[in-house]
Amino acid sequence: MGPSTPEDPIVKALQEYTTCDVSDALCKLKFRNGGFLSGLTMWSPQRQDGPTKIVGPAYTVQYVPLSDPKPNHPTHYIDSVPEGAVVFVSCPPKTPNAAYGGLMSARAKASKAVGSIIDGRFRDLQEQRDLNYPIFARDVGTAPPAELLKVAAVNVPVKLQTDEQDMTINPGDYLIADMNGVVVLPRELVEAALPLMAKQVEADSKMAVEIQKGMSFTEASKRFR
């Protein structure tokens, strides 16, 4: 084993905030939908419960239909996951098969990835939970991907597979996920977003105290925001 990777100061800073805090800041910066990636929810280690939160740069994986002319990626994507990364697996919409399974998480965890986000279905839910490995996804399934899909590329921009939004996840963008959902924070907006998060959380904390004492939301907003 080589020397451990120094902690990313951006990851450390983002650990202090919820996905809602990140979205609030991105809304102020006029980034569409506050960076929210719709339809992706927590499945492991628990279903939409507990303190699980993952933060890290995106390592993107692009699955395409077998009919796509792009060639197969020459090596297995799971063997190149960087330490501290969030694996983001993009799967064509309306694919009934799972695009990700338990052995992938076993390898990702050994590589010190922080979690995986599957824009589609995944399988082996109990294995994922036994690994205590964070999984966010659209849904679960049973069949593996090989009869329908192939990996065309890693670390390329991928589109969120939904007709609700037009969102792109770029390699190295920061992904933050907790029980509220999944948010993408573009690298180029990090410097502007972090101070906005701190300011918003401070204001909201003060508002919460006064609202619980009986102040109206309107008055608290005027006073602290």
Overview in brief:
Keywords: Magnesium, Metal-binding. Helix content is 28%, strand content 24%.
Can you tell me about this structure?
The structure is a single chain. This protein is α/β, with parallel strands linked by helices and 225 residues long. The chain has one domain (9-187): 3-Layer(bba) Sandwich (Glucose Oxidase, domain 1), CATH 3.50.30.40. It contains six helices and ten strands, in the order ααβββαβαββββββαα. The strands form two sheets. Strands 1, 2, 3, 4, 5, 6, 9 and 10 form an eight-stranded mixed sheet that branches. The chain has a two-stranded antiparallel ribbon with strand order 7-8. Helix 2 (19-28) crosses helix 5 (190-213). The model has no long low-confidence stretch (mean pLDDT 95).
